[in-house]
Amino acid sequence: MMLNLFIFLALFLLAAYAVLTYYPAFGGKHTHERKSIYASSTQYRNGRFINQVETSWNTSFSSMISMMRDYIKGNPERRPVVPIQMASYAPGAKEDSAAKVTWFGHSAFLLEIEGKTILFDPMFGKAPTPFPVRNQRYSKELPFKIEDLPVIDAVVLSHDHYDHLDYGSIMKLKGKVKNFIAPLGVGAHLQRWGISPQIIQEHDWWNEFSFDGLQLACTPARHFSGRSLTDRNATLWCSWVINGNEANIFYSGDGGYGPHFKEIGEKYGPFDLTLMECGQYDARWAALHMMPEETVQAHQDVQGKLMIPVHWGAFTLALHAWHDPVERAVRSAKEAGVQIATPRIGETFTVGLDDYPATVWWGLTKVRM
């Protein structure tokens, strides 16, 4: 019996090692040469990237017990009770210089600006996990077919978590993407998936660079990274500034509230549009994901004019009701006198126009028809 148990454990460990090593969804590993390059970053210490300020979640015994209790208790409103009614995305005219934004749910969005098409955090898979069996996307379909998307001048990534960097989506997209732009370390995943290193750019915080006539900056965020049990904070996370002749846009990426927002606003603001993380939060991990009221404050800190709340509307990754992020953000924005746009998934609108989408479309999914 002991021999059989030993054999079982050995086979289990061997299988686990094989999956972690060879299953491509886990991404790439970093060579000593890569690590020596990262060592020049002020964000890199002892083989890991760090935040500007102390960032962790509450892992006390009482917190863990309360979290287990809340997960067991559940929340019937963690998912929509009826399907989400999406808009149908149709590519715009590239010769139109006006900046247009299309939100695809969660944090994925397309920016069409000055003849360029830039896709951010394209998670188009069924579930934000390496094994997409549970926690499925609210909508079974996307508001488009990936093969119908226009040629993408650049895919821009904020970090390597599964709900932002999806293996299946990258594999379907890579034939029509000219460039990949990411924070330090994320390129290793892309290279493992067959992306040529010649079209991958990696950037550290505060790096400024030109891209096809646009001015971009990789800016700080307060978060973490990792795709497996052994690569916590092995890659950098970030926010992005996209500055063109027609519009100045900020994307927060993921993260908790912090002093970096005011720094970004002072250096690169004001912004015509911000896309700010708002969702998958909890008081126990507020340092990693902003509460909706902090989302509005962060928008004000970066000196934004119009805000779109993102990081919600596609998946359930926290305990709150699925519609809670946008409702709290809208309420807080109204109290603060902040303009907030609430486009449907797949809906395109032009930046800078006063006629921005502000319908309460999620209200139709809260009751059974």
TrEMBL record:
Gene3D superfamilies per record = Ribonuclease Z/Hydroxyacylglutathione hydrolase-like (3.60.15.10)
Q: Which InterPro entries match?
A: Metallo-B-lactamas (IPR001279), NAPE-PLD (IPR024884), RibonucZ/Hydroxyglut_hydro (IPR036866)
Which stretches make up the Metallo-beta-lactamase domain? 117-312
Question: What Pfam families has UniProt attached to this entry?
Answer: Lactamase_B_2
Transmembrane parts of this sequence: none
Q: Which PANTHER family match?
A: N-ACYL-PHOSPHATIDYLETHANOLAMINE-HYDROLYZING PHOSPHOLIPASE D (PTHR15032:SF4)
Name by which UniProt lists this protein: MBL fold metallo-hydrolase
